[in-house]
Amino acid sequence: MTLHALADRLRASKGFAHKVDIQSAYAGLGNAHGSVRVGDDTAALPDGDGYLLFAIEGLLEEFVRAEPWFAGYCGVMVNLSDVAAMGGRPLAVVDAMWSAGAERAALIWDGMRAAAMAYDVPIVGGHTNVRSDGGRLAVAVSGPRESLADELRCAARRRAARRHRSARRISVRIHIGIAARKRRLRNCAQISRFSRR
After folding, report:
1. Could you give the C-alpha distances from 104 to 20, 33, 134, 138, 167, in angstroms and in order?
2. 1: exposed, middle or buried (C-beta count within 10 Å: 0-12, 13-18, 19+)?
3. Which of 28, 52, 81, 163 has the fewest CB atoms within 10 Å, measured from its CB?
4. Strand 131-145 relative to strand 92-100: parallel, antiparallel, unpaired?
5. Helix 68-85 crosses helix 102-119 at what angle (to 10 degrees)?
6. How many CA atoms lie within 13 A of 145 on its CB side?
7. How sure is the predictor about 14, in pLDDT bands with cuts at 50, 70 and 90?
8. From start to end of the chain, where are the E strands?
9. Distance (Å, rounded) from C-alpha 152 to C-alpha 159?
10. 58 has a pLDDT exceeding 70
């Protein structure tokens, strides 16, 4: 498959089409969100000096049907990644699941539980329906994020520490250089005295 063919195939895929759907959906919101800027997968809600991050992911029905365990795992993992990517610390997971029977639901739950344990973030609630005609899954994660001011202060402290370490290294090199030069001068002076005898 050529690169152009691959690009065309990706553009025609449902995953890409769903990203376009987001734009039209948000356009219809108008000012319903107030002063909070609308996020894509993750929204940042002002909370004191920082933010409360809220991420959600809906998984493709075909994916949930074909790979229920992995869909459950991915539902948790991608949300944790989205929150972490915005500088947050994921605190808790909730889900909304529909499945055709308890056996399919158990597979999805096993995948979600495995991801929650792997990343040490608890699943604290959600909605479950095991009498659906198919498999559908949405997972949400929330967590705090420090304020930008705090991050800037931390970054400034790190830069200052690096400058201090660099200055110390330069100072040590200068002292070593001066000591070596003094030794060379003493050696030259001794050689000069011996040569005059």
Report:
1. 30, 36, 10, 15, 62
2. exposed
3. 28
4. antiparallel
5. 30
6. 24
7. confident
8. 42-47, 50-59, 92-100, 123-129, 131-145
9. 10
10. yes
165: Cα within 13 Å, side-chain hemisphere: 6
Give the chain's mean pLDDT: 79
Assign 99 to helix, strand or coil: strand
Average pLDDT over residues 4-31: 73
**pTM of this prediction exceeds 0.85:** no
Furthest-apart CA atoms within the chain: distance in Å: 109
Sign of CA dihedral 74, 17, 87, 163: positive
Lookup result for tokens 């940042």: 44
Which residue reads 């933010």 in tokens? Answer: 51
